[in-house]
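2024-03-11 09:14:02 INFO worker-7 job=invfold-0412 stage=load source=structure_tokens
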């Protein structure tokens, strides 16, 4: 039986294939449709605004080093084909030749490139950006470094335009603080970074927009359909994630400016710094960018708001990963419909999987239950969303968290509920982003960081293991000699997954 399934199960909506750096032209409409509230938490954030107070230290840390990357080649970059791309255009952009690209990608048809197709591109680019470190990795992810940080208190204290801002999204009127909180948590991007970039681009945090452009496009992404803080922040958070996870695990070594020029990432940088650099390449000219990523640019704005970013931090306990069970009931057969893709937007680590229940072919909510993959507490719910915290403290900034998307509102478990593995959480649907068939999206986070599907950190569910993939949504699950292939279909021999 053949079906049509969404090829994306997070917000930004399904179906969108974004490149590692940059947006496909038709992506403009995506964040418009994605602008809807997803915020229901059992406990409001607590803590103090402004620079972090000293914390007891077990093992102090220095600024995040650039970790060794064994088994990767910094002279070639993984690139996803965009609409309108040609090999000659890519050769010019990366300062290489068509023959060199063909040599790295044997078997491709240069006349039939597909949007989203992965290509290895040899790098002829030699110019490098500044080597100044901007933030530690812990600032970029919404993790333990933010346990004592309150977004509303910070915004009230600064007293700028953001503190009075309101925007109607999906029928609800949200304050500026609620928008920042929602976007930061959904993408798991550090709110101090978002606020510093917002202040740098438009002055919203401490003052007033200087002109109409700054009011409509406060993050500097001037595209029709991206007006307003919610859409601007969603785009910015996905861009930051794209830089962070692209550099950290997707063989990204260059940054692309809006005019098409590229520059290599300097040696010795960490992923958090590269993320900020990647965001700024999209909204600044190369000349303005060079100043913005130096000590008098972003670092000066950040310090004026929050103090020194490279503070000693408490050592983190790396908890063992839970033994995840399949997210459906014993004796049921579901279908593997989506291989590795972004946890929230394609900028996040490609660690999400999609599964469809057996009873519906469209968007009618399923009568089957999506179930808890481990013991834990529901840290947050929202439109289509359930966040399951497995360390039991109810804080999604720490420990292992499983993010579910497309869970119907009717029958959905409330925030704060404690569950055991196998307990029902809600019914698969199309809610929470675009989807054309009811399904469940699962993605892991550890201490706020999206966890990719890769050989050194496999994703195992009920005895099945997901294999890494360089093509979004394509993938394989293996169990011993058995293999199941992701498919936008319901074909039991190909992608049917039985629970014990």
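2024-03-11 09:14:09 INFO worker-7 stage=emit residues=500
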């Amino acid at each position: 039986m053949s079906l049509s399934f969404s090829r994306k199960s997070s917000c930004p909506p399904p179906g969108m294939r974004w490149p590692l750096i940059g947006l496909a032209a038709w992506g403009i409409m995506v964040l418009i449709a994605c602008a809807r509230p997803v915020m229901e938490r059992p406990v409001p954030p607590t803590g103090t605004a402004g620079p972090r107070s000293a914390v007891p230290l077990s093992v102090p840390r220095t600024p995040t080093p650039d970790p060794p990357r064994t088994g990767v080649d910094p002279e070639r970059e993984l690139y996803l084909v965009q609409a309108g791309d040609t090999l000659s255009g890519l050769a010019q952009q990366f300062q290489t030749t068509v023959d060199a690209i063909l040599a790295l990608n044997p078997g491709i048809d240069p006349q039939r490139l597909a949007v989203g197709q992965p290509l290895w591109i040899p790098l002829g680019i030699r110019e490098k950006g500044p080597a100044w470190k901007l933030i530690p990795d812990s600032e970029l992810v919404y993790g333990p470094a933010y346990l004592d940080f309150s977004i509303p208190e910070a915004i009230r204290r600064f007293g700028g335009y953001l503190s009075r801002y309101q925007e109607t999204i999906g029928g609800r009127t949200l304050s500026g603080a609620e928008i920042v909180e929602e976007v930061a948590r959904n993408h798991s991007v550090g709110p101090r970074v978002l606020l510093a970039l917002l202040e740098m681009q438009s002055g919203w945090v401490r003052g007033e927009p200087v002109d109409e452009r700054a009011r409509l496009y406060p993050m500097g992404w001037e595209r029709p359909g991206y007006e307003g803080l919610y859409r601007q922040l969603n785009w910015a958070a996905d861009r930051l994630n794209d830089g962070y996870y692209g550099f950290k695990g997707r063989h990204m070594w260059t940054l692309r400016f809006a005019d098409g020029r590229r520059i290599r990432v300097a040696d010795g940088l960490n992923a958090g710094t590269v993320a900020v650099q990647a965001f700024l390449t999209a909204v600044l000219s190369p000349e303005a960018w060079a100043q913005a990523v130096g000590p008098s640019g972003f670092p000066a704005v950040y310090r004026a708001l929050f103090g020194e970013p490279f503070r000693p931090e408490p050592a983190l306990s790396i908890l063992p990963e839970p033994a995840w069970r399949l997210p459906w009931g014993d004796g049921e057969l579901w279908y593997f419909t989506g291989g590795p893709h972004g946890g929230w937007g394609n900028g996040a680590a490609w660690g999400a999987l999609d599964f469809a229940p057996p009873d519906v072919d469209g968007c009618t909510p399923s009568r089957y239950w999506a179930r808890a993959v481990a013991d834990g507490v529901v840290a947050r719910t929202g439109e289509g969303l359930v966040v399951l915290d497995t360390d039991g403290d109810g804080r999604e900034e720490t420990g292992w968290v499983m993010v579910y998307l497309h869970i119907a509102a009717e029958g959905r478990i409330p925030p704060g509920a404690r569950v055991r593995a196998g307990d029902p959480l809600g019914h698969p649907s199309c809610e929470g982003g675009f989807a054309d068939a009811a399904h469940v999206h699962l993605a892991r986070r550890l201490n706020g960081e999206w966890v990719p599907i890769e050989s050194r950190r496999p994703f195992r569910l009920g005895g099945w293991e997901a294999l890494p993939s360089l093509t979004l949504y394509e993938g394989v699950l293996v169990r011993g000699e058995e293999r199941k292939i992701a498919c936008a279909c319901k074909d039991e021999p190909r992608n049917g997954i039985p629970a014990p």
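2024-03-11 09:14:09 INFO worker-7 stage=report msg="The chain has three domains: 35-65+129-306, 76-122, 333-498."
2024-03-11 09:14:10 INFO worker-7 job finished
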